[in-house]
TrEMBL record:
Pfam families: ABC2_membrane_3
Subcellular location: Cell membrane
GO terms of molecular function: ABC-type transporter activity
UniProt entry keywords in alphabetical sequence: Cell membrane, Membrane, Transmembrane, Transmembrane helix, Transport
Protein name per Swiss-Prot or TrEMBL: Transport permease protein
Organism: Schinkia azotoformans LMG 9581
Membrane topology, record value: Multi-pass membrane protein
Length: 388
């Protein structure tokens, strides 16, 4: 009878037991500040990043102009492009080579070439052609640039026709201004050619960063860190010893995704394969060091996973992988500037699509080298050969 009563008491809900567990869990959460900070900061960070970075409206494209006519009519046309707010006239140049160099370097997304006889042909009521050079590496931006340029020239042509109608009563020009588009690097504006190189960089980053993020944390949770403590191993030796195996794994993963991207999806590498491999190795060292830094900070594998995602999410949104960085606010672009993937995407798309050389990618290479050195140094200094 007593056993039945005791069993009945155990099966009934007890507010005291519930309160004890409830308080205990809050104490546990309070003793784990990193997880609590991530749980509070992550939603706010996601909201801010998505709110500012996720922008599918493409405008303010950096534009270079070569006005060979330099007349009032040609200047009015350039101003009309600027007034649309889709084109930012950032450079006025005096040769085709200067336009090509700015687009090759990724500084300008569009180029406008006005012929020397632009105004004279309009005065003679003849059709004149304006060339539009478009960086086709981002197909979405290229389509929008082409569409808006065509709409603008149609509007300008209609205005000229109306003027002729008022002056002479009729217009014998079907379209006074026509646009001659030339899409560079990706003439067919295929999204696959734009996305596959970026996916290679993103996959490399995510795999290597997550793998190495667990390297030291695993030692702590398994209790094998004590064995390392009593050895004469120095922090830098332990860090390099932990890092090197993942270098080989990263190289293997890179080879797989590169061969698959080129062979299966048919995305050609127009630039140097040797340069691509060398700079990919540099990026690999950088992401592995990021993972190691996370591993030295995190106390548990759960914390390591949370920190890894806190690093991966901004890199996806702010690096230019999904959305053009030119459409983001300046301060968001600054945040994206401290993400290594931002520069590696420029390298990948430059080598894949533009046949870029080290001479045109030296800035991205230097920045990645600085990132690799600083992050490796910080991870080594952060590590303490003791159990905290």
């Amino acid at each position: 009878m007593d056993e039945r009563k005791e069993r009945k008491l155990n099966t009934t809900f007890s507010f005291l037991r519930f309160r004890s567990i409830f308080i205990k869990e809050f104490i546990q959460i309070r003793r784990d500040p990193p997880s609590l900070a991530i749980a509070i900061a992550m939603p706010l960070m996601m909201l801010l990043l998505f709110g500012y970075a996720v922008n599918t409206d493409i405008d303010h494209l950096p534009t270079v102009v070569w006005d060979q006519d330099n007349s009032e009519a040609s200047r009015d046309l350039v101003q009309s492009f600027a007034n649309t707010q889709y084109f930012d006239i950032d450079w006025i140049v005096y040769s085709g080579d200067e336009i090509q160099a700015l687009i090759d370097d990724g500084k300008a997304k569009t180029g406008i070439v006005i012929p020397p006889d632009y105004s004279s042909k309009l005065d003679r009521h003849e059709t004149t052609s304006v060339q539009l050079l478009i960086d086709g590496t981002d197909p979405n931006a290229a389509r929008i640039a082409l569409s808006n340029a065509q709409l603008l020239t149609q509007h300008e042509s209609l205005a000229i026709q109306e003027q002729l109608m008022e002056k002479r009563g009729l217009s014998n020009i079907e379209q006074p201004i026509e646009i001659l588009p030339r899409v560079l690097y990706n003439p067919n504006m295929e999204s696959l050619i734009f996305n596959i190189p970026a996916l290679i960089g993103l996959i490399m980053q995510n795999v290597t960063a997550i793998l190495t993020a667990f390297a030291l944390v695993r030692e702590k949770e398994r209790g094998t860190m004590e064995q390392l403590v009593v050895t004469p191993i120095r922090p830098v030796e332990l860090m390099l010893g932990k890092l090197l195996p993942y270098v080989f794994i990263g190289i293997f993963s890179f080879t797989i995704v590169l061969v698959t991207g080129v062979g299966w999806f048919g995305v050609p590498v127009k630039g140097s394969i040797t340069l691509l491999i060398a700079l990919s190795f540099l990026f690999l060292i950088t992401t592995l060091a990021v993972g190691m830094l996370i591993s030295t900070v995190a106390k548990t594998q759960l914390q390591a996973m949370q920190m890894s995602f806190a690093f991966i999410l901004p890199s996806v949104l702010l690096s230019g992988f999904m959305f053009p960085r030119e459409t983001m606010p300046v301060f968001i672009q600054w945040i994206g500037g401290i993400i290594p993937l931002t520069y590696f995407l420029e390298i990948l798309r430059g080598i894949f699509l533009k046949e870029s050389t080290l001479a045109s990618l030296w800035q991205e290479t230097v920045i990645l080298s600085v990132f690799a050195f600083l992050i490796c140094l910080l991870a080594t200094l952060k590590f303490k050969k003791k159990i905290e």
